[in-house]
Fold this protein.
Amino acid sequence: MLGNITWNAWLFVKTTPSIRGVFLGGEAMGQGWRYCYACETHTPPRCSHCYDCNVCVLRRDHHCVFFNQCVGFRNYRYFFCCLLHMWAGLLYAVVMNAEVFIVILKEGVTLHSIMLLLVPWIMLVSGQVTARAFAFAFIADTCVVGFLLVAGFLFFHIALMLRGQTTREWHSSRRPYNLGTVNNVAECLGSRWYLCWLCPLIPSPLPGDGIHFKVTGSLEPVR
């Protein structure tokens, strides 16, 4: 699990989703294309400029501040799988630390037990608990908080994937790129979406090129 997290994170950082080295092709410009004044080029639908990376990114989702890398067309699979395995790892850690909560709550739901679970460092500084009790409570709390944060982020991206949207498109009620559940997942994770989450080395070719997308509706804004 740790290997999957590390390897997916490394491939996510090393795989650039930008337009650098990509031939956009002026003859295919049409509905949804825009001109980026920063990059001084026309950009395809779902592509936008990232001011942190200082480049336009194909099917840009968002800029990940944790890895200082944009999430886009070519590296979304690694980002999502890294998130998935982080969630699974933290779930395992929470289950393994469940005994800590059981031991603390054995004395009942008292002010002491609640304070130890919520603010263990205050209990340590005030001399109410030992360093050993603080360490166990702090680690257990960290696992729970981390699990909840990653779970929220993971399920948000699952919802986006199933809807055929990116984070930038979430606010829109229109879903012109919604191709159905299975096709939406394949657009993000590749043709072997049912296997690629097992290992980042499993090849899973993406069905498109990040420039042209199948649409089920108009790309023009509703007036």
About this structure: Strands lie at 34-36, 41-43, 48-50, 55-57, 62-64, 69-71. The radius of gyration is 22 Å.
